[in-house]
Amino acid sequence: MTGKIFVVTGANKGIGYGIVRGLAQQLNGAIIYLTARNPTLGVAALQNLEKELGDKKKSQVIFHQLDITDENSCQKLAQHLKETHDALDVLINNAGFAFKQNATEHPSIQADITIGINYYGTKNICNALIPLIRKGGRIVNVCSQGGVMNGNYAKYSKELVDRFRNISALKISDIDQFVEEYKKLAKEDKRKEGGYPDTAYGVSKAAEIALSLLQAHELKSKGITVNACCPGYVDTDMTSHKGPLTIDEGADTPIWLATAEEVPNGAGSIYWPSPVELEAPIFPPRLELKVPELLEIEDNF
User: Fold this and answer.
1) Confidence band (pLDDT; 50, 70, 90) for 264?
2) 201: annotated active-site residue
3) Strand runs labelled E in the chain
4) Record's family (predicted)?
5) What is the pLDDT of residues 155-208, one digit of tens each?
6) Which end of the chain has fewer CB atoms surrounding its CB within 10 Å, N or C?
7) Which helix (H) or strand (E) holds 191?
8) Cβ of 59: how many Cβ atoms within 10 Å?
9) Beta strand extents in 40-108 (DSSP E only)
10) Within a 10 A sphere around the Cβ of 242, how many other Cβ atoms?
């Protein structure tokens, strides 16, 4: 991975920060972009990282502002990478958002914001940066088991589940329609009547998983590997610090997918063979955790 260019979104804290920190310690001579929406927080994170790692840092870490919900911001980063490096090797889409379980905002507001960041934001940055990714490059989308449509954490109608069973027949427009239907039902407060769960987070992550699998299929011919993964229940602001895993443990699988010599491709991934159901453990396979610990998950995860 010497000389490789990495971009990590949402990296000023939490799992994203852990990913950057892990990459900087494990890789020799890479260039890692720590991106964040807020420049003040991003610069502070970079300064803290430099102080924390000291001479343990083996790669260069650079801050660049990025708001994945802003297409202009995404294009500015793309332009910088093109002009400075001419290409990109690895994109790790970690940026995400979840309302707390006791949030009082109307369901339509929660839907607009959550889906706007987790699904449309991820799609924005992918659209901007995929043209720069070299053959042999990778995309890692940090998702959640909360997005599994036939799992234990979100209930969908049979019609919706059946619609997503054949991922190879889906198009991006189908995923857009899926989230837009949810947003409309949330505005009318008729989510359950429409076959959707209450959780906007789960819907946004189901869409992100489906997007990941479509990307894997479409980009395979270009030599780009795409995977979605669940970091586990991590001690972060998003989980109200209830998760048993450290941010380094949460960063472990994304780092592995980004750097290991041989990893699966999302088109037949051991992580999410479809957004409907799972055929393998949903938590990081490189972490030896007991099943009871894995099942203690809240809806906002």
Assistant:
1) low
2) yes
3) 5-8, 31-36, 60-65, 88-93, 133-142, 225-229
4) Belongs to the short-chain dehydrogenases/reductases (SDR) family.
5) 899 898 888 877 777 899 999 999 999 999 999 999 999 999 999 999 999 999
6) N
7) none
8) 21
9) 60-65, 88-93
10) 15
Listed residue (77, 89, 106) closest to 225, CA to CA: 89
Contacts of 164 (CB under 8 A, 6+ apart): 149, 170, 178, 206, 210, 274, 275, 276
What pLDDT shows up at residue 217?
86
Judged against a pLDDT cut of 70, whether residue 290 lies above it is answered with no
The pLDDT tens digits of the residues spanning 110-133 come to: 999 999 999 999 999 999 999 999
- Report d(CA 56, CA 189) in Å as an integer: 52
The length of the chain is 301
Query: Domain 5-294: which CATH class?
Result: alpha beta
Q: Which of 119, 201, 233, 271 is catalytic?
A: 201
Token couple for 90:
């690895």
CA distance 11 to 95: 7
**Model confidence at 299: pLDDT above 50:** no
Angstrom distance (rounded) from CA 222 to CA 47: 37
Locate the domains of the chain by residue range.
5-294
* Tokens matching residue 246: 């450290």
